[in-house]
Amino acid sequence: PPRVIALGFQLSEGRLVGPVDLFDDPGFDRARQIALEVADYMRAHGPFEPHRLPLEEMEYTTLPGVLEKLKERFFDAEAKENVVAQV
């Protein structure tokens, strides 16, 4: 889930005091609810960048190896032989 935080610190007599959650107020509850609804809506569209690095930058991670291992499980979702039901 999305997280938006605001930490407040105060310098008092040479000592750092805090942190205090500046959003710890019921006035921000509606904004948090809207942020969660928007995040759910965006997740419903499937993965898209920038949820991670662009594909060309992922070549130096384990992603290519994982994709190679899963290659046999991929299929063309739009191919007629893979269509389960017509709407």
Structure overview:
With 87 residues, the chain is α+β, with helices and mostly antiparallel strands. The chain has one domain. 26% of the residues lie in helices and 15% in strands. The chain is built from two helices and two strands; from the N terminus they run ββαα. The chain has helices spanning 29-43, 63-70; strands at 7-12, 15-21. It has a two-stranded antiparallel sheet with strand order 1-2. A hairpin with a 2-residue loop joins strand 1 and strand 2. The model has no long low-confidence stretch (mean pLDDT 82).
Low-confidence stretches: none
Shape: elongated
What percent strand?
A: 5-15%
Count of spatially separate domains: 1
Number of helices: 2
Helix content: 25-40%
